[in-house]
Amino acid sequence: RWVLSLQCKGSRNFMSALRRAVEVDFKDKDKHKSQGLYLLTTGIPDQETHTISAYVAEVCRGFDLQLHVCLFSVEDFNSNGIIPARYANPTETAIAFKEIVQAANGRFHWFGEAGIFESDDITIIVSEMEKAKNYSQKCAFLVESLKQRS
Prior knowledge:
It is built from 4 helices and 4 strands, in the order H-E-H-E-H-E-E-H. It is an alpha/beta fold. Strand 3 (108-112) and strand 4 form a beta hairpin. The radius of gyration is 21 Å and the shape is elongated. This is VWA3A protein.
């Protein structure tokens, strides 16, 4: 419930937030088998993608940590004249976060007001459904061929 009381604020200083999360907030990381961080964002971080990816890969290698990103693309964004330190269009932002997530063995989800644009979880589910469908068709073919032999 405490999440509902939070207010949006801050910057896109991803490295500062990530360092705080892994170096301060995960004090008891050795007591847990695995941990995950979820980044909920609407834009690209201030730092370069390759810098973040290298840091994330190093941090996640140290213990079983996965970084998952939920990118929400806002259609009509009003920044009230505030120009971010780094700008990228939604597609460039998604590409950058996919690279970061790959370095962290995490999952990427991209959605907006129109719905889901991309989601690793949904991609996996659809793949499993396709495999099940193909298996079912092979089983049906096998049963049919056995019936014809009788």
